[in-house]
Write a structure and sequence with these properties.
The chain has 127 residues and is of the alpha+beta class. It is built from four helices and four strands. The protein has a four-stranded antiparallel sheet with strand order 2-1-3-4. The longest helix has 20 residues. The radius of gyration is 19 Å and the shape is globular.
Length: 127
């Protein structure tokens, strides 16, 4: 009986650890320009909630895309010299238990493309 109880406790502990490590919880800060106020939204998955627009849809897209959605522009990439505006954003938190820290700007074509890739999290560029 003691072995069964110990085994059950171990399984529950492992299950709890796995659930905790798969947490998705993001803080999204968007600013229209250097002197503008910062708009902060949140997104949590499992279950979907937070102040981000359409949390269930955002979680589905985010989890399908995975961590690659936050990848920076690779070094040496040629980017068009198109200025998209002074908007900036910072996404921090965890995605499936892995830390996320991603900064977004609209200073060239590559950065605009990155912004557009996560626009469902950031919302329309403010300003």
């Amino acid at each position: 009986m003691r072995t069964l109880v110990a085994a059950t406790i171990s399984v529950v502990a492992v299950g709890t650890a796995l659930a905790a490590s798969s947490t998705t919880s993001l803080r999204i800060a968007v600013q229209a320009g250097p002197d503008a106020p910062v708009r902060i939204t949140t997104l949590r998955c499992d279950p979907p909630s937070g102040t981000a627009a359409q949390p269930a849809r955002a979680c589905a897209r985010l989890l399908a895309a995975g961590r690659a959605i936050f990848a920076p522009t690779p070094a040496g990439t040629a980017c068009t010299e198109i200025y998209g505006g002074p908007q900036t954003a910072l996404v921090t938190g965890t995605l499936r238990g892995t830390k996320v820290w991603a900064r977004f700007r609209r200073r060239d074509g590559c950065e605009i493309a990155r912004w557009n890739r996560v626009a469902f999290l950031l919302g329309a560029p403010p300003g």
